[in-house]
Amino acid sequence: MIEQLVIYPLVIQMLLAIVLMFFWSRIKWQRVISIIGSVVNLGMAVWLFVLVWQNGTQSIQAGNWEAPFGITFVADTFAATLVLLTSIAGLAVSSFSAGSVISARLKFGFFPIYHFLLLGLNGAFLTGDIFNLYVWFEIIIITSFVLLTIGGEKAQLEGAVKYFTLNILASIIFLTAIAVLYGLTGSLNMADLASKVAAVENRTLVQVNALLFLVGFGIKSALFPLYFWLPASYHTPPSAVSAIFGGLLTKVGVYALIRVFTLIFEVDPFLENVLLAVAVLTLFSGAVGAIVQNNIRKIFSYLVICHIGYMIAGLGMMTEVAITGAIFYLIHDIMVKTNLFMVSGVIYKIKANHNIRKLGDLYAEYPKLSLLFAVPLFSLVGVPPLSGFWPKLSLISEGWNTENFTVIAAILFASFITLVVIVKLWGEVFWKTGEKLPEVRNFPYFNKLSKVKRTQMLAPIIFLTLVTLYLGFGAGNIQNLAERIAFELMDNQEYINTVLRK
Amino acid sequence: MKTIILRTASNYMLPLLLVFSVFILLRGHYLPGGGFVGGLIASIAFVLHAFANGLEDTRKLIRFHPGFLMPAGLTVSFLSGISPIIFANKPLMTGLWYPHHLPIVGNLGSALFFDIGVFLVVVGVTLTIIFTISESA
């Protein structure tokens, strides 16, 4: 049964979602099952990661149909790492939702839908079939739409409409691109496509097709100029939902971009320039957007956009070192962004406000919590030796080697603005003597919550902070991991051979 | 809508449509049909009954909340999907077949149970949606 290990992260999430549906109206049970299930899932993801790390790429053919015909699930180091990160973030957010989301919202099937979302994420990372990837994207959109609208507040619905419209547009473009690709090659298996696309004679159509994929995934990963849905929607749902969205949803788009442009398409100079230009503009516009916002979660939403630029810059330079930087940044970003949205959730529970101009005094009132919150905040900036620093080092040095000075300028600019934004946030929220905020009636204030709930909210933040600290202080190991992933991505022969059983 | 003709007819149509939906479900392996279409036809049977006799009567007829069929159906499909991993150590969704020919059903395989699961989920979803809408209307 160990040969089937690749599929277990999917099986577990599906099983969890189904079991949780049987407990539809018993919220207490749902909390317990979701957390325990996430722990089991994390164990499974670690097991898969260790197996892939020791034995190389694993694959299975669903339905036992041979490779180019059936749907393949592949776990190379990249996919296994992302499944592991999804499980870590999934466990953290599961516990955080149990503590922070009010039961009136949980009653509408929050946890089953949440685990269907994690199923979609794991599926998207593990699948080796481009059409199957589309199906997982659909599962992600539908479940995230439900999570976004549970509660039915006016702002939520407004955000959800924008979110859904643009994301469904992205899906249509993605599907069109798949159709064109299938028309050109007659195959949907990504490993098979790798050789078949290279043999297509109509290069113009292949280039157009690559651009279609870029636009489709670009909307999903919130690249310039297609990011407007993100800041319009991410600040509306409960913080637990923002956390999993900010941490993982845009990164699925980045994952798909990296996978498609390293495995299926060869990046020609034109596409390289497009990617670099988009990366520079994303870095620039995200940073500028973040600096003018006052709502904590809107600030973080713009920073999500801004930092996607680093990964795309790494992809655009298309050398092994640059991809290493992009992968390291991806790993760091998933952990830190998930954590930051949870931090914003705790701040909201303490003060019942999201506006940094009105907040204040947090350091005086909660010194220990403030120090805890400082780690992810300054890790985001990239203060050495915290985790955000190391990938930028690879990106900048490779930008120097490939003489992309605009990219270096944009990376430095975005880092600088992130520093300004975080310092401003720190000063306003933690150090400033704030005005007295009016008491909101019936609001579940942090110090009025039961001890269990407070633990459920703080434990995941501590957990992810420890992971972030490990990413920073154990940077050597992560760098090795990222280098191995980058090597496998640039030299994709092992992936192809494993899938096609050569 | 509560005319005597529709009401009388719906009493006969309900079992007829249900049998037909099962026929479509079983036909689905090689011919057009299957769990999804079968499930829709089965839910049409109940919707027609609800139109003719009122929602309350249909609820009494079904006895439990149709939403329960969603996890139940998913369980059946899920078990049929993972059964090859458990029993045969083959990848997910591999078809397992009972070696002998059975009367009426024909060849029995895990694919049939997957379709039955889909059937239940579709009935559950459709009836939940339609009952909720007609409740609030």
Architecture overview:
The complex is a heterodimer of chains A (502) and B (137). With 502 residues, chain A is mostly helical. Chain A has one domain. Helices cover 76% and strands 2% of the residues of chain A. Chain A has 21 helices and two strands. Chain A has a two-stranded antiparallel sheet. The model of chain B has no long low-confidence stretch (mean pLDDT 88). Chain B is elongated. Chain B has helices spanning 4-27, 35-53, 55-62, 69-88, 110-136, and strands at residues 97-102, 106-109. Helices cover 72% and strands 7% of the residues of chain B. In chain B, strand 1 and strand 2 (106-109) form a beta hairpin. Chain B is mainly alpha-helical. Chain B has five helices and two strands. The two termini of chain B are 15 Å apart. Chain B has one domain. The chains are: A mainly alpha (502), B mainly alpha (137). The interface between A and B is medium-sized, with 17 and 17 residues.
Percent of residues in helices of chain A comes to over 70%
In terms of per-residue confidence, which ranges of chain B show pLDDT below 50 for 5 or more consecutive residues?
none
- Measured as a percent range, the helix fraction of chain B is over 70%
Number of strands of chain B: 2
Largest sheet data of chain A: 2 strands, antiparallel
Structural class by helix and strand composition of chain B? mainly alpha
Topology (SSEs and partners):
The complex is a heterodimer of chains A (502) and B (137).
Chain A: H1 8-22, H2 27-55, E1 58-61, E2 72-75, H3 77-100, H4 103-106, H5 110-126, H6 130-149, H7 154-185, H8 190-199, H9 203-220, H10 229-233, H11 239-264, H12 269-292, H13 296-317, H14 320-351, H15 362-365, H16 367-381, H17 389-401, H18 405-431, H19 451-473, H20 475-490, H21 493-500
Helix pairs in contact in A: 1-2, 1-5, 2-3, 3-5, 3-11, 3-14, 3-19, 5-6, 6-7, 7-9, 8-21, 9-11, 11-13, 11-14, 12-13, 12-18, 13-14, 13-17, 13-18, 14-16, 14-17, 14-19, 14-20, 16-18, 16-19, 17-18, 19-20
Chain B: H1 4-27, H2 35-53, H3 55-62, H4 69-88, E1 97-102, E2 106-109, H5 110-136
Antiparallel strand pairs in B: 1-2
